[in-house]
């Protein structure tokens, strides 16, 4: 399980991602955060908290991301959200990155814009997720995977990209 937890993943090239600053985009980013579950696990203040405690398996704690966000660039944050890969190349554990993987750049930018407006919560949770023996066995066996490993197995986004769509529309006859 330690080998899987220490596994290195490649990051992303989201350096060109545009993060808006207007109020409407930030409001939409908050809506996306609510729909995607950010606020459910990390709380309204993003201070984190206990998500679930399953004896013998896991004590799942959402971290205080309000304190982590200022240390990440927008591109690093986009990589964590879309690919489940932290700046050190390791995977986040149980974040549902597959929910963010296919977000349009504009929506991901809006989400990041909202996250940037949330003040740091100094008294947020400091506890970390605890993988218990059964979770470690399942992880070592490959039955559960860190978030980044799950992203690797996702199919390509449904639909076609804009260039191919434009070509098909131009040649529809």
Compact summary:
This protein has 173 residues and is mostly helical.
Tell me what the structure shows.
- Helices cover 43% and strands 8% of the residues.
- The chain contains nine helices and three strands; from the N terminus they run αααββαααβααα.
- It has a three-stranded antiparallel sheet.
- α2 packs across α6 (105-117).
- 29% of the residues are buried.
- Mean pLDDT is 87; it is low at 158-165.
Q: What share of residues are in beta strands?
A: 5-15%
Query: Biggest sheet: strands, sense, closure?
Result: 3 strands, antiparallel
Number of helices: 9
Could you say which structural class the secondary elements and strand pairing correspond to? mainly alpha
Mean of all residue-level pLDDT scores: 87
- Tertiary shape: globular
Count the strands?
3
Widest sheet: strand order?
A: 1-2-3
What's the Cα radius of gyration?
18 Å
Helix amount:
40-55%
């Amino acid at each position: 399980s330690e080998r899987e937890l220490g596994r290195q993943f490649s990051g992303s090239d989201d350096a060109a991602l545009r993060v808006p600053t207007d109020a409407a985009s930030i409001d939409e980013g908050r809506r996306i955060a609510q729909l995607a579950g950010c606020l459910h696990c990390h709380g309204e203040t993003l201070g984190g908290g206990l998500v679930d405690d399953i004896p013998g398996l896991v004590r799942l704690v959402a971290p205080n991301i309000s304190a982590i966000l200022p240390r990440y660039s927008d591109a690093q944050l986009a990589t964590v959200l879309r690919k489940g890969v932290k700046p050190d190349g390791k995977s986040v554990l149980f974040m549902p990155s597959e929910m963010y993987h296919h977000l349009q750049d504009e929506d991901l930018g809006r989400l990041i814009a909202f996250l940037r407006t949330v003040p740091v919560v100094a008294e947020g949770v400091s506890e970390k997720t605890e993988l218990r023996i059964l979770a470690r066995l399942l992880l070592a066996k490959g039955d559960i995977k860190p978030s980044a490993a799950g992203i690797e197995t996702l199919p390509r986004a449904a639909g076609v990209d804009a260039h191919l769509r434009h070509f098909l529309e131009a040649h529809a006859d």
